[in-house]
Amino acid sequence: MLKLYTYFRSSAAYRVRIGLQLKGLAYESVPVHLARDGGEHLRDDYRAINPGALVPCLSDGTITISQSLAILEYLEERWPPRPLLPTDAAGRARVRALAMIVACDIHPLNNLRVL
């Protein structure tokens, strides 16, 4: 079963939760609190799973993927039914461009790690 390491206030983790729901995929949600006790994401046990110490992080058996857009691309390629992207190349490019605006231009302004 897929395992998603997530934080309820993370917009990046929220993107992945939306993708999982739209694709109808079952997953185990593992909360990783970013503020409690100095940040659970900084603990050695979580760093063993994700050396980048960020959320979201998706585990699928022996594969672990971080970064929300990479996770969504993986879900799209691994489980093609119920696609998240349009079927035409131009449509897919538009969706990816919008996703990158959020992830690269807007998201960093709200991320304490970047500020």
Q: What structural class should be given to the helix and strand makeup?
A: alpha+beta
User: How many discrete structural domains?
Assistant: 1
Task: Give the CATH topology.
Answer: Glutaredoxin
As laid out across the biggest beta sheet, the strand order is: 2-1-3-4
The shape is globular
Estimate percent helicity.
40-55%
Instruction: Please tell me how large the radius of gyration is.
Output: 14 Å
Uncertain spans, ≥5 residues at pLDDT below 50? none
Succession of helices and strands:
EHEHEEHH
Number of strands: 4
CATH C-level class is Alpha Beta
Summarize the SSE layout with pairings:
Layout: E1 2-6, H1 11-23, E2 27-31, H2 44-49, E3 57-60, E4 63-66, H3 68-78, H4 89-106
Parallel strand pairs: 1-2
Antiparallel strand pairs: 1-3, 3-4
Helix pairs in contact: 1-3
Structural write-up:
42% of the residues lie in helices and 16% in strands. The chain has 115 residues and is of the alpha+beta class. The protein has a single domain, classed as Glutaredoxin. α1 packs parallel to α3 (68-78). It starts with a strand and ends in a 9-residue tail after the last helix.
